[in-house]
Design a protein that fits this description.
The structure is a single chain. This protein is mostly helical. It contains four helices and two strands. A two-stranded antiparallel sheet has the order 1-2. The longest helix has 11 residues.
Amino acid sequence: MISYRKFFLLLEQKNIKRTHLIYDGIISSETLLRLRRNKNLSMHTLEQLSNYLECDITDLFSIE
């Protein structure tokens, strides 16, 4: 199962609010909901998030 806990911890460390990702046009509110529910995301979305957060894609999720 995919877990995006690392993503939310990274947001906290960088002091970025979840809503900023929506306001900045990085992801939609639906994508944020998918992240919160640990649902699958496209590689394109993961790439956008990693570019925005200046991290590696593997820093965003773990497989449990």
